[in-house]
Design brief:
Blueprint lengths: L20 H12 L12 H10 L5 H14 L3 H5 L3 H8 L6 H17 L7 H5 L6 H10 L10 H12 L10 H10 L4 H17 L18 H4 L20 H13 L5 E2 H5 L5 H13 L4 E5 L2 E6 L3
Antiparallel strand pairs: 1-3, 2-3
Helix pairs in contact: 1-11, 2-3, 2-8, 8-11, 9-11, 13-15
Length: 311
């Protein structure tokens, strides 16, 4: 049976050609790593978990100030668990996808109830928490506890796709073969594996970027399959969907949330209606926000008279 073209070839751990990647990347990381607060020696597992949730689909430049303010206000899971959802959503501000904020608060509550307020280091216990999936659990185990874990984010996928598979960009959806490949190049010991995970991410974020890779300063330039092949074009480009913003439901939902976050109390329904001219689209978006638990409707009799953030 021929190889699936969407599956990078996973090599065995013993003698795998990618096994020396860490030795090339770690010295580069030691010199070029950004000074991010969730990497400091005094970081806490909770702080790392918060950073990983905030960093989902949001750039570091926006996350760092929000993370600092968040951790100053709610330094432990118990602090966030006791906060009002309205305060949590206001603090989340414009980080995007505000359901992440409520899931993070529910995660904090479960950490308090199930684990005595301490973030667990066990993979299954982490994945049982609200909003914590395979990647986030691996990232917390690696970056907070120093365990060997395969933290395969977009940046790492891109580094491995270029260096080992010779692709411009990885396939749109993560494959089991990618996971096996990432496992095969992860160093065996906990400490080196944890450093490799963060170093590979940093390389993808700063050098091996999606749009303008800086191959001339990459520590893998002498062994990169994509560079050696002449930097071929993205063979998966036809499968990637653009992510528009203007005129979408995401924009409408964002406008409604911004209006409610900026109000100390309920906002009259006519003011909410004024945020968007398309009545059908706006009403659909508001109904979705209510269904998601992000907004509460204030009802008098049979009529919705106002909207507010949840308690």
């Amino acid at each position: 049976m021929p190889d699936d073209p969407d599956q990078p070839r996973a090599t065995a751990r013993s003698g795998a050609p990618g096994r020396g990647l860490a030795e090339a990347v770690l010295p580069w990381y030691d010199e070029h790593a950004r000074d991010l607060p969730w990497r400091h020696a005094d970081r806490t597992p909770w702080g790392v978990l918060v950073s990983e949730v905030m960093l989902q689909q949001t750039p570091v430049v926006r996350v760092e100030p929000a993370w600092r303010a968040w951790m100053a206000r709610w330094p432990d899971p118990a602090d966030l668990a006791a906060a009002s959802s309205a305060d949590v959503l206001r603090a989340w501000d414009r980080l995007g996808y505000p359901r992440r904020a409520l899931r993070l608060q529910e995660c904090a509550r479960q950490v308090v109830v199930r684990h005595g307020g301490q973030v667990p280091d066990d993979e299954s216990a982490l994945r049982a928490l609200p909003g914590v999936g395979t990647y986030t659990a691996a990232a917390v185990r690696a970056f907070a506890f120093g365990h060997r874990a395969v933290a395969l984010d977009t940046n790492v996928r891109r580094v491995l796709a270029r260096a080992l598979a010779g692709w411009a960009l990885p396939a749109p959806s993560q494959t089991s073969a990618e996971v096996a490949l990432a496992e095969s190049v992860t160093p065996d010991d906990d400490a080196t594996a944890a450093r490799w995970s963060v170093a590979a991410m940093e390389l993808g974020a700063l050098v091996c970027t999606a749009r303008a890779p800086r191959c001339d300063v990459c520590p893998l330039r002498d062994r990169c399959a994509w560079l050696a092949a002449g930097r071929p074009a993205d063979e998966h480009a036809h499968r990637r969907r653009a992510q528009p913003w203007a005129g979408t439901d995401r924009q409408v939902r964002g406008l409604v949330m911004a209006l409610l976050r900026g109000s100390a109390g309920a906002v009259p329904a006519p003011a909410v209606a004024a945020v968007w001219p398309d009545d059908q689209q706006r009403d659909r978006c508001v109904a979705g926000l209510v269904a998601d638990g992000l907004v509460r409707a204030v009802v008098v009799g049979d009529a919705v008279v106002a909207y507010r953030l949840p308690d």
